[in-house]
Amino acid sequence: MDTVTEHVAESLVLSSLQLTSTNSANSSQTTAADNKEKAAAKPQEQEEEIDIDLEAPETEKAALAIQNQFRRFQKKKK
Hints:
It is a single chain. By secondary structure, this protein is mainly alpha-helical. Helix content is 72%, strand content 0%. The radius of gyration is 17 Å and the shape is flat. This is Si:dkey-46i9.1. Residues 21-51 are annotated as: Disordered. Belongs to the PCP4 family.
């Protein structure tokens, strides 16, 4: 695997882990009613469409690298 793919995979793992830890910290402090109020108050955000070729070898390598990094993180977490 080339270094660019490894770097991209590592960046994706780190950002997803940061989102996960942020979401778990926030979810413990808010209730379902608060979340419904916030969702109702926010205007509909337009989703950005990202076109990724899931059959590309680079994508498969990146996915494997992300999965491996996540498994290592889970092992360290225990």
